[in-house]
Amino acid sequence: MDSKVIPDASRLEFQTICDWGNWVYIDLLTCAVWYRNQVFPFDDMFDNGGLKDDPIQAQQLVNSLLNGMQDDRTVSDDSEEHPLVQVHNSVWRRLAKATPIGMTFNDAAPVAPTNEYSRCPSQVCKGYERLLGEYPTLDEMLTLRRQSAGVSPLFALVEYVTAYGHKLRIPDSVFETRSIKEIERIGIDLVLLQNDILSYCKEEKEGVAHNMVAICRRAGMPAQMAFDHIGGMLLSCYHDWYLALADLPSWGESIDSEVQQYIRGVQNVVKANLHWSFRSGRYFGEANEEVRKTGIVTVQPQSADVELSIL
């Protein structure tokens, strides 16, 4: 997956991105069987692990992560920290070291999105608490998921690699334009929507409540209608993508060229996630190729499916 996101990375940059990815998802066995039986050590703790219903412990872990992201570039002793915190700190120090001279560490490209992602699990826990006893709407859940999906740090890391290897320097003002923000928003939505379609069968068995397909089915949609509805949201994203591209302003030939490199990086993230979903065994196991060819999956029946079959 990482090689598709950053195909032109140097060896050191590629290692840094892979290490960050392994912090989120890691193989249960060895690198030789990388595409089998993967787990997401950080992500899964909040989805279906020990922190799923424990916002206090979740916040403590998030605080430990944030402590390692202070603007002092110092190397503190984290030997007593959770192993995931140690891995995160190691990656963070490498990003700090690569920050260009004259740039404040917290102004570095990867800092804000990664900082935001590290905070998000506790925010999402609080969001679920606010929705306790109520079924969240798609819009409510989409807002929460955009923060917790872990996609925006990949966009920033793509910029870090491109900037480090190809001297990409995009002014901050460019990232504040409506069209660039829209392109990033669409990229995030594409990843999380296609992920929820592909991961639904696995997450249905685990009782994961925040899957977008699951929300549609809880709202009374039969299974096929729920998948079609999320598929329609994907199609809307494609439409919005081309509108955002058409709305891009020009900043001059030099900056425009670098912006196009960044946009290709966003596209690579989306494509890499889809490619990984069918290469890993996380969602379909040995049925990967069959599902990819047929587009058919088996879901657990619910009342709406029974009512539709009667009609």
Automatic annotation (TrEMBL):
Annotated EC: 4.2.3.-
Pfam family, one: Terpene_syn_C_2
Tree of life domain: Eukaryota
Alphabetized UniProt keyword annotations: Lyase, Magnesium, Metal-binding
Cofactors: Mg(2+)
Molecular function GO terms recorded: metal ion binding; terpene synthase activity
Coiled-coil stretches noted in the UniProt entry, renumbered to this chain: none
GO terms classed as biological process: isoprenoid biosynthetic process
Broad class of enzyme this protein falls into: lyase
Family recorded in the similarity comment: Belongs to the terpene synthase family.
PANTHER family in alphabetical order: BETA-PINACENE SYNTHASE-RELATED, TERPENE SYNTHASE
Protein name (record): Terpene synthase
Organism: Aspergillus transmontanensis
Organismal lineage: Eukaryota, Fungi, Dikarya, Ascomycota, Pezizomycotina
